[in-house]
Amino acid sequence: MAWSTREIAELADTTVRAVRHYHDVGLLEEPERRANGYKQYGVTHLIRVLRIKRLTDLGFSLSQIAAMGDADEHPADALRTLDAELAATIDRLQRIRLELGMILRQAAPTDLPPEFAPAVNAAELSDADRSFLVVMSRVLGPRGLQAFSELLRDSPTDPTDREFDDLPADADEETRQALAERLAAHLRRILAGHPGIRDVSADAPGGSRFADRTAAQALRELYNPAQLDVMVRADRLVREAEDRERG
Length: 247
Description:
By secondary structure, the chain is mainly α. It has 12 helices and 2 strands.
């Protein structure tokens, strides 16, 4: 008995287009043709199409099936390889589901590591602060990320936070200096409670210099000139105060 392309496709529960594609990529031999030019498929063709269909349903690509050859024996090695790949995929998808659950429960930003979610939600971050944290989350190591997370979670809000966020780029000298002095006092309290923040880039995977350069670049792009000036002044005031205390 011989079948047409449509008939063999129906028997194999596939499509005429798929059968023709198997021919095009060399997976299925061309059958003989009738006098009228129509293809006539036999049992060997049907078995081959069924095998291709079964393997593709299991997850093999057509190139992988081609590499197995035409033999119909049990492809144990290929099946073991595919099983390992599927196990890895399942594991990855399960991790993604856990992260999605955490994000949904805690309304966390999707561009931050999931362990940052509680800290970010507890802190009142400006858009610039959050963007800076996103950048730093890509370059800091585990200890640095932990230090940032603890800082965000534990540090109380301070009036200088809002003043700094609202500082206009053309703020005058007096305003900048006054804010820097108040900010320096706030920073000293933070450093006293979170000394680990001093060496936040110590375990950065790409090295502390790269992390520091990245931080500097992010600061320059995210904050206006007056805010950057206040940061520099406050940092200088903190260092001067610490030098006086050391004697």
